[in-house]
Amino acid sequence: MSEYSNNSSKTTGIIVIIVVVLAGLTAAWYFGMYKPEQEAKEQARLEQIAQAEAEKKRQEEAAKRKARYDQLITDADDAFDSEDWQTAQSLYTNASTFLPNEQYPKDQLALVNAKLEEIAAREARIAAGVVETVSSPTERFYVIVSSSIDDDLAMDYAKKLAQEGTSVKLVQHNYNELPFHGISVGDYETWAQAEAALSSFSNFGNVWVLKY
């Protein structure tokens, strides 16, 4: 019995050692390999989710910027077509802040700024009583308040209006093969715009539109 007991104790001891070793190996595998691997996978999954959410947010913000840009361009183009240069300038500038790489609003701004500079120069001429002379066709539509064959007479009247603060151009054109000097108090890109403006100059009496 004593020998059997000793053998049994040895066997039990060996089993305990094996269990302890296996437990150690299992713990080493779990904490040294499996758990870090699972944590890395979970971290990668969370990063993918975060990246997907960030990309979705970026696309949503880009879509909002594009929609805002499109609306500003539409409004700016309407202002441009109506020759509301100040409004067009503001809207094109604002549109560029939403999509800075777009060239269209920059090109339109260049045109608008040129128009504003032209207006400023014209106003300076008005303030100085200077009359601008149009001697070649421009394909614009002029509101004419007076026309004369006598260029000196036409210029005198034009200067009088300019000194009173009216924007005046002396349009040199032919009528029935005769040279005439029309006094214009407004010019527009389309016939409809010029026609619509006639009522604004009714104080001049008989006014009409001349395409030149």
Description:
GO terms for molecular function: peptidoglycan binding. InterPro entries: SPOR-like_dom (IPR007730). Keywords: Coiled coil, Membrane, Transmembrane, Transmembrane helix. It comes from Ekhidna lutea. A 5-stranded mixed β-sheet has the order 1-3-4-2-5. The chain has 2 domains: about 130 residues, Alpha Horseshoe (Serine Threonine Protein Phosphatase 5, Tetratricopeptide repeat), CATH 1.25.40; about 80 residues, Sporulation related repeat (Alpha-Beta Plaits). The model has no long low-confidence stretch (mean pLDDT about 90). It is rod-shaped. The protein starts with a helix and ends with a strand. The chain is an alpha+beta fold and about 210 residues long. The longest helix is centred in the first third of the chain and has 80 residues.
CATH topology tier name of the largest domain: Serine Threonine Protein Phosphatase 5, Tetratricopeptide repeat
Shape: rod-shaped
What strand line-up does the widest sheet have? Answer: 1-3-4-2-5
In total, how many domains does the architecture comprise?
A: 2
CA-to-CA gap between the ends?
Answer: 133 Å
Assembly state of the chains shown? single chain
